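Posting for a labmate who doesn't have an account.
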Amino acid sequence: MVPVGREGADYRERPAHDPVDPDEIDDADAPPETRAAAVAAARHGERLDKLLVALAPECSRNHLQHLIAAGHVRIDGGPAATASRRVRAGQRVEVDLVPTAESQAYRAQSMALERLYEDDDLLVLAKPAGLVVHPAPGNWSGTLLNGLLAHHAGAAALPRAGIVHRLDKDTSGVMMVGKTLAAVTALVRDIAARRVHRRYLALAHGAVAEERFSVEAPIGRDPGMRLRMAVVAGGKPARTDVERLAVSGSGKSGISALSCTLHSGRTHQIRVHLASRGHPLVADATYGGRPALGLERQALHATELRLEHPITRLALEFACAPPADFAAAWAAVGAPAHPRRAE
């Protein structure tokens, strides 16, 4: 049975800044999404902030008021300075949906969470493929953050509802969430100090020749395509250790089953590092992968998480079995069902 979190905890004390490295969470440098609409006759004379709720229903009214004050809302091309301004029929209203670290900007949405562990301070869950972790342009609702806000009341007072690292939308597997400010702070510090160990299973194009190797190459925004990352001079340091577990086929037409261990947590790190070595993930179209073995989404699964409990400091280890689509493709390559951890 999953322990029930305590009620009535004091979450009022908040950090002066967001302690989470944005590179671990979301594509913070991506351009904001802009929404625009002409004011309908039925909304003539309505308050601007009320109109924006209809235009961006994923966001709270308080957050939309903040966007107005920050200059992210325009009427007929000019800045709209006050939330109480009355709009007129036919006016064009635009709003830049700028992401925020404050969880209060988003609405709670109940969803099923597959919990591997939970206590008053820590939640470890199995994320399904297809679930977006944090709201971002194009995905402002139905995210894990929305689900966490519905899961426990304290999430609304935490940066990013307690999310301290992310998995890409199409990556499945184990991830952790802090439930109190003390836990979030400790987890962020442990990640920065490389005391949290994360291992992934991956299926990559091409027959990998080496049994074990490391890719140590800096990662930053791709200068030619802002929605991608790349190995670039001046990027953030990143290292991925790779172990070959099985190979099906030969040469470029082969497919390799790999175990990947992170020593950093850069955006798209495994995807970028393997692609830079000529082995893009199966079905990872962003980095040159093609569908294969029945997989239509990138072939990456977070299988193992090891950490110290953020409060008790007891050693914890969690394993998460791959979902059916990944498991079938993994077996087709001849990889072991329960790959050992390389020491």
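Reply:
Got it, the structure tokens are right above this. The first helix runs from residue 22 to 25.
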